[in-house]
Amino acid sequence: MTTNSITPLYDYDVAVIGAGPAGMTAAIRTRWVKSYKSVPCSTVLFDRAGLGGLAKWRSCMLTGPSFHLMGKDVVARFKQDIDDLEIPLIASRVVKVALEGTVKTIVTESGDSIRALAVIIATGFRSLCNEQEYLKNIAITYMGYEFFEELLNNLFTMKGKQTVLIVGNEFTRNLVDLIEICNQGRQTVLYLIDAHAEKPLWPAPPGTVLQGKIVRYEGKESLEGVKVVLRGGEESFIACQKVLLDYNSYELAPLYEFDAGALKKDGRGFIMVDREMRTNIPGVYAAGDVTGLYATVGRAIGDGIVAGFSAYKDIFRRKFNHEPCLFAYAAQDIKITPGFKDLPRPSLNLRPKLLVSAERAARYLDEYATKTSRKLNSIKDMLNSCAGIDTLQEHLNKSSLEEQHLLDAIEFLLEKKAVALHL
Ligand SMILES: Cc1cc2nc3c(=O)[nH]c(=O)nc-3n(C[C@H](O)[C@H](O)[C@H](O)COP(=O)(O)OP(=O)(O)OC[C@H]3O[C@@H](n4cnc5c(N)ncnc54)[C@H](O)[C@@H]3O)c2cc1C
Fold it and tell me: What residue owns the CA closest to ligand 1's atom 35?
């Protein structure tokens, strides 16, 4: 068994950007491949808004009326596994990625710089922010345009003269006539369209169409306005009492807040992937809404699972030079003899990294000690310094451990999904 000795040191096997349903499932599947033997990846999640993504909004219809769950319940299920597996979440916006090369680098707004062998991009659509705090004042077109006229009539029959901000993109031009007909000049209408959209094609008085994106909804009891970043980067405040979010236009715009330039995209900017969610860059995968239609939780979960397995498979091959035994794997021409093991014996060039708390790992080792009647103090000491830096050989050199003893204990911890082996 050989390992790639020229791979520079890195922090995690897999970095997942975005913790909506696609990112959460991708992360879980790289850490928990199956209930029996596997070699877990070390995995880190990034999300500027915590766990859940758009799925934590209201309820999710998964396949039809009989499969209708509350978004928060769906997210809670994934959170349970993320917590149990101790998958770290870096709660910050990813602002820069270097995707080329063997080791990728991910940089966040708060200054973290993380190196990983694989990156799974699951950043979804154009961003929402704190809309949920002002749902009384925000109308959303997610039910399609047949309901649009009714939505507008409700908006424009407010008492007194108020300002309604319509948020969309270049296709919002198709809504303008109906907006004007329904409003009949009763309320002040402003438009905020995507910073990257074409210049608006409809005639509008100067100042009524701005280009940029909302970063925060503000107001004490009810909405008083929105903080926006205008095209060009300047911050501004738009006073308004109601917002109409043309959510359908969100479905036309994937979200990157970093330069994803080298990734192959389709005509609308969605990341192109193959059936295994691989992109054109080796070691980079994408899942969920960021890869295009159809924008649903079920698909995002499926994509995340596939992306997670693909990353696992590619990393496993690099570490062990053969295919992992995933589900229903193709029959291989291997003679099965007594004592046959599914997991490869780790090479001493691999670098153990502890994935769970030291206390939990110590508990597992006690379990192992009881099973094997071996003394484990020296392994417990060693475990605390398992950060994916020293190789197994270096750990052996620094201690009085026997090789067989160490490898057996590592194998036990692998089964518990408590340790990863870095290149
Ligand atoms: C109001 C509403 C109702 C819906 N109803 C349904 C429904 O009934 N049934 C259904 O199946 N689907 C529904 N959907 C759609 C569904 O929620 C999405 O398709 C699904 O959540 C997509 O999952 P995702 O993981 O791809 O992306 P998201 O859920 O969008 O998650 C992406 C995550 O990436 C994070 N992110 C983005 N950029 C960065 C960055 N640079 N750095 C760090 N983090 C970043 C975001 O904060 C976000 O948490 C609805 C959506 C909405 C808004």
Answer: 18
